[in-house]
Amino acid sequence: MEKDQTENSKFLVAKERVTAVKKYYTGLVRLAIFTILLLLCRKPILQMFIDKGLGDSNILYWVNWNVYFLILVFVIIFLIKGVILFVVRKKYLKEWEERQIEKIMKEDNFQD
After folding, report:
1. Rounded to whole angstroms, how far apart are CA atoms 80 and 88?
2. How far apart are CA 73 and CA 64, in angstroms?
3. Measured between alpha carbons, how far is 24 from 59 in angstroms, rounded to an integer?
4. Backbone torsions φ then ψ of 53, nearest 5 degrees
5. What residues contact 88, with CB distance under 8 A and at least 6 apart?
6. Is the pLDDT at 3 greater than 70, yes or no?
7. What is the pLDDT of residues 23-79, one digit of tens each?
8. In the predicted model, what is the mean pLDDT of residues 78-93?
9. What is the mean pLDDT of residues 3-12?
10. CB 9 within 8 A of CB 100
11. Residue 112: is its pLDDT beyond 70?
12. Cα pseudo-dihedral 88, 94, 98, 99, rounded to 10
């Protein structure tokens, strides 16, 4: 009975991890698409500012770097999420598994 619960618990943890990894990769694909679209639309955005009469080189420079800065911010966020998902969380799950194994072993020793 306890073995079934342990296997079920491990299955749920594994399923949760797979879901988290899937979400991460889906977000990474979205980030890539967003980045490509933003880079492709950069020149039309700058042209829009010129057409509105805001063709000052300082404004255009500011808008241009804001496009790159936005991409950089999203990349940094995804790097942090990746570290949390693949490094920190993995370590936590391993420690959790060890604690569960020790707990079950202690319970089995009391029953013998």
Report:
1. 10
2. 15
3. 35
4. 90, 15
5. none
6. no
7. 999 999 999 999 999 999 888 888 888 888 877 888 888 888 988 999 999 999 999
8. 84
9. 73
10. yes
11. no
12. 40
pTM: 0.67
Token pair, residue 22, equals: 């899937």
What would the two tokens of residue 59 be?
A: 């404004």
What's the length of the chain? 112
Long-range (24+ apart) CB contacts under 8 A made by 42-48 are 42/67
User: Sign of dihedral through CA atoms 89, 87, 99, 13?
Assistant: positive
Whether residue 1 has pLDDT greater than 70: no
pLDDT of residue 2: 61
Structure token digits, residue 26 = 């889906």
**HEC letters along the chain:** CHHHHHHHHHHHHHHHHHHHHHHHHHHHHHHHHHHHHHHHHHHHHHHHHHHCCCCCHHHHHHHHHHHHHHHHHHHHHHHHHHHHHHHHHHHHHHHHHHHHHHHHHHHHHHHC
